[in-house]
Design a protein that fits this description.
Radius of gyration: 21 Å
Helix content: over 70%
Distance between the termini: 55 Å
Number of helices: 20
Order of helices and strands: HHHHHHEEHHHHHHHHHHHHHH
Largest sheet: 2 strands, antiparallel
Length: 471
Amino acid sequence: MRGIFDFFNSVDTYMYYPVLIIVLAAGGLFFSFRTRFVQIRQLKEACRLIVEKPAGEQKVSSFQALMVSTASRVGTGNIVGVATAICLGGPGACFWMWLMCIISASSAFMESTLAQIYKQKGDDGNSYGGPAYYIEQALKKPWLSVVFCVFLIATYAFGFNLLCSYNLQSTFAAYSFYDEKKTPYIIGAIIAVAVGYCLLGGGKRILHLTEKVVPFMGITYVIISLIIVFAHITNIPHMFALIFKDAFNFRAILGGFSGSCLVYGIKRGLYSNEAGVGSAPNASASADVTHPVKQGLVQTVSVYIDTMILCTATALMCLSSGVAYNEKVSGAPYVQNAVSTVFGKAGPIFITVAMVMFAFTTLIGNLYYVDNALAYMNKKRPPSKRFMNIFYVACVVIIFAGAIIPMDFAWTMADITMGGMTLINIPCCLILSSTVVKALGDYEKQKKQGLNPHFKANDIGLDPDKLSFWK
C-alpha cells in the first residue's frame, strides 16, 4: 500500500507543480484582463443580483443556485484545508490563497456564464447544464465532455467525499472517548447513513436544505472566529507580518517548492473555492435569469464568500491565537487548539458541530453535481431509479471508507481528481472566452441604457436555433 500511496503522491506533486500552477495563474490572469477584472468592477452588481427573483414560479433562483455551489465550496476545506496549509506550508499560504482567490474569481465568472448560455431545457421546463454541455455544443467534442464527466464523478463521488468524511471524523480525535481502532468506523457509519437518507429526497430537497443551512453555518463560524481574533487583538500586527514575511520568503519557497506556502496556498485555495474546476457551472445552469452574465457575476460572490470570508476566518483565528502550528497538529487539531484559547473545553465541541454542518452540506452538494454528470452520460436523461439506488449505495460505502483511510491518501486523491477536471475546464473556457466577453459587453451596454438586461443569442453572433434558451 505504501508503494501505491507514493505513486499517487508523485502524480499529485507533478500535477500541481508545474502544470496546474501555470494553468490556474495564466487562465485567471487572462480572464481577468479580457473582462477588465469584472470580478472586482462588478462586485456591487453581483451582490445585488443575489436577491433577484426568478422570472417564473417554481423556478430555481440565482440565490438557490448560489447556495448549492456554495454548499459544495463551503465545507471541511474552510476549516481543515486552511489549517493543513498553514501547518505544512506555513503562514504565507494565506497570502497566496487570497491572491489566487481574486484571480480565480474571473474563472468562476467565465465558466458559470458559459453554463448559462449553453444550458438545456428539461421536460419539466427547468434548465440544466455545465461544462459537459458547453464543451459538446460550442467545441463539438462530445468525447471530451464524457472524459470531463468521468473526472467530475471521480472527484465528487469519490475524491472529495473520501476527504470530507475523513476530515469530519478527525475532529473527534480531541475527545477522550476517541479510539483510533473503533471510533472512525462508528462515525463513518453514521455519516454514511445520514447522507443516504437525505439522498432519497431528490434534488429539490437539496436546494431547500442548503438554502437554509449554508448561511446560518457560515455566519456563526465567522462570528466565533471574530471573537477569537479580537480576544487576541494585540497579536494581529505580528500575525500579518508573519503572513507576508513567509509569503515572500522566496529562498524557502524555491528550496522546497512542492511543500512551500505558495503551493499549499494554491492547492487548498482551489480545493476550497473550486473556481475554474467546473463544478459550480452545474448549479449555475439551473438558475432562471434573464441574462447569462447575471449568474456569472453571482458565482464570483460564492468564491469570495468561501475564501475571503470563511477561509480567512480560519486563518486569522488560528494565527492570532498564538498556538503552535506544525505537522503534528495539522488539520482539525490546530483549529480546535485555537478556539480553546477563548472558549476552553467548549472550543473543540464548536469546531466539531461546525464540521458536521459543513461536511453534511458538502456531501449533499457534491452528489447534486454527480447526478448532472450521470444524466449527461446517459444520453442526457436521468438514469433509471434502480441504477441510481445502486450508485447511491456505492457513494455511501465511499463515505464510510473515507472515515477510516490515512489522511495523506485522502488529500492526494481529492487533489488528483479535482486537478483532472480543472485541466479540462480551464483550457475550454480559454477557447470560448470571446463568447463570454461579448455577453458581458451586451450586459453592460443594456445596464448603461437603464434596462434590466435580457439576452438574445443573435445579439452576440450565436445561432439561436442551436441553443435551448435565448431565442
